[in-house]
User: Fold this.
Amino acid sequence: MTKDLTLRYTAIQSFYWMGFATISGFASVFLLAMGFSNTRIGFIMAISGLVSAAVQPIAATLAEGEGRTSLKSLLYGIGGLVTLLGLGLTALSQMGGPAVLVGPLYGGSLFLLHLAQPLVNATGTEALNHGQRLNWGLARGIGSAAYAAIAFALGLLADRVGRVSIPVMIAVSFGGLTLCLTAFPFAKGGGRGTEHGAATPLAFFQKYPRFAMLLAGAVLLFTGHTILNSFNFQIVQSKGGGSGEMGLATALSACYELPTMFFFTLMAKRIRCDIWMRVAGVFFTLKAAATWLAPNVPVFLGIQIFQMLGFGLVAVASVHYINAIMNQEDAIKGQAYFTMTMTLGTVLGALMGGAMLDRFGVDAVLACISAVSLTGTLILCASTQRT
Assistant:
C-alpha cells in the first residue's frame, strides 16, 4: 500500500524555506550588524553561490541516480552542518566577532543552503516516482507560507532582540529539517533513469538550443531578483523603513506566491505554460521598475503583489514547461540547469549589488536592476517555445 507523504514532505519544505528566509533574506541585516560593508557582504554571497553552482551538478546527479542512501546521507549531513554553523554564529554574535570567523561560517551556511535545494526537491519527486502519494505543489506552497511567517516574525525579533535572533533561527530551522528527515521514508533503488538522454552539456544544448537562450534570460532575471532580496534591508531603509518593514515586505511577497502555487494546475489547463513563462518574465521587470520608483514604504509594500505573477509563477510554471518541451529522459537535467540559473543569478547579483550600493547608492542599483530585468524578459520571451 502507498502512503500519503504530503504532511511529512510539507514539514521538510517548511523548515527548509524557513532556513532560506533566515540565511538568505537576513544576510545583510546580520552581517551589517557584525560590521561588514555592503561590498564584503556581496563578496561572501558571490563566493558561496559560485562554489554552490560548481557543486550543484554533482548533487543533481546523486539526486537522479541510483544512490538513495547517498541522497538521505547528504541531506542529513547538510542539515547537521548548518545547525552547527548556526550555533557557532550565535556564539560569535554574542562575542562580537571576529569577522575572520563570521564571514566563512555565514558563507558556509549560504553554500549549504543552495546545495540543499535540489536535494529537497528530489526527495519529493523520487517518492512520487516510486508510487507514493504526495501533493508536491501543496507542500511547496506551504513552504512559501512558512517563509513568509518566519520573515515577518524574524523582522520583529531582529528589531527587539537584536542580531543574535538570526543565527538562533538558522539553528532552529535546520535542526527541525534534520528531525523531519528521520520521519520520511526515502525510496530505495534508482529513480528515473537518464542513460538515454543527452550525455554531455554540449549534447544537451545542441538538442535544445532555444532552452540555452531561455537560461541566459533567466540568469538576468534572477540577478535582479537576488539584489532585491539580498539587499532588501538597504532598499527599505532608502524608503524610510527598517528591519520590521523589511520583514513585512518579505512576508507579503511570499504570501502572494501562494495562490499561484496552489492553483497553477487549473491555470495551466486554461492557458499554455509557455505563455505563463512570458507573463512571469514581464512581472519580474514590473517589480524591479516599481521598486525603483516607489517613493515610500507603503507603496513599496503594495508592489510586493507583483511577486504573485513573477517569482511565484516561474517557480511552478518552469517545472511544467520543462517537462512539456523535453523528452522524459532529459527533463531532470533541464530542471537542474534551470535551478543553476538561480544560483548564477545569486552570484552576479551579489557581486553587482554590494559593490554598486557602496559606490553609487540604492537608486542607481534599482535603475540597473530594472534594465537588467528588462533585457532578461526580452530574451526569455523570444526563446520560450510553444508547449
About this structure: The longest helix spans residues 328-360. The chain has 16 helices and no strands. Confidence is low (pLDDT under 50) at residues 189-195. The radius of gyration is 20 Å.
